[in-house]
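pasting for the record
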Amino acid sequence: MRKVWMIPVCVALVACDTGAPQEPATRAAVPDTKSLRAMKTFGPTRPSPPMRSNRDMTRDFLDLAFSLESGRDLNVFTRFEGPITVRVTGTPVPTLVSDLDRLLARLRNEAGINVRRTNSSQANITIEAVTRAQIQRQLPKAACFVVPNIDKLSDYRRAKHNKATNWGLLEKREKLAIFLPSDSSPQEVRDCLHEELAQALGPLNDLYRLPDSVFNDDNVHTILTGFDMLMLRAYYAPELRNGMSRGEVAARIPGILARYNPRGQNIAARYPSATPRSWVKDIQTALGPGTRPAQREKAAQNALRTAEKAGWTDHRRAFSHFALGRITQSSNTAFAKQQFQIANRFYSQTPGAELHRAYSASQLAAHAINEGNAKAALSLVNPQIPVAKRYENASLLATLLLLQAEAMDMQGRATEAHAARLDSIGWARYGFGADWVIRAKLREISALSPRQ
């Protein structure tokens, strides 16, 4: 299940503007949204291979395969056997089918899974596009989710307490349903598609200790990574089968990883510590919906204390600082900036956390623009633009380009700034969707400049 809460791309030093559309009171360099450019999309995916030890990834595989997100242990290993078919029903956004076809091609080529799209009602996996309101009437904290042994949302209410839909009692996978929003941005739908289809095929758990995976509730990675494809490839290795115990899988997975990822045999293990449930709960309270500001800040402070006590120096320590910075942004900008700086430092020291660092850099660039330091803003933003492109994060890319344009304007580079804004709008159409959201983002970034 993908959570409603995630790292938003809001970078303003005050609360984000989410109100109704208004005309931006900005200089003429800001493009007229009546002439917004066509949506941009990404080319072929080029994922980075996992750069961690196979010994670490053996533990990761077992923890992903034999636990649920709730922390409940699973007794047996389950997967599909034989060719897998996927169909789309409901009212999907126009980009869903093309994004699905790209993902299925990657699963065949990178993970070796025999999976294809079909129009047959007998498909193994049904992807039903419904409204966000329909999804959240069933699971209020979910942006999207996957369920075994049904094929439409209307069946979920009466089936959700049955044994057939209980992941903990599942012995094999034959039929699953994925519920995606039909009224969200193309990127949000694609992000849900990647996470839910990966869980439909393979691991059901999320681990905060993973810096390079969609199987992580920080929601930083939005498309399947090289690590994720390796995990899914191992999931469908011929040595494994339905009904195996954790011990049986543990005896086979080191050899499977050695075959599929020989470079990981020569990398030293890091053995990252487990993530306490108390830290997870505090992070979810801090960033989740329905929490008062004072409760958010208290939870973020608690999460940071837990991270410090655990002695973490990885992306989890960085994320604790990042979350605290986000929460205090509008009430104490100096303190928030300090938290983003600390987060950026820890991210820079963590292998596989370059996308995380792009988020902290965007926040620091916003502070630099607000302080009138265009040079510092560009030094933060420019290296992260190719990172956002490589990880196919259009909303982050659009935001970085808008920050770049604002800094260029401050340097008197109006022509370059205008080109960057136009470029950003094509990506914003995919990342943010609705025109009013794009206009709000334009106003938000423009308002950072002390000249406004």
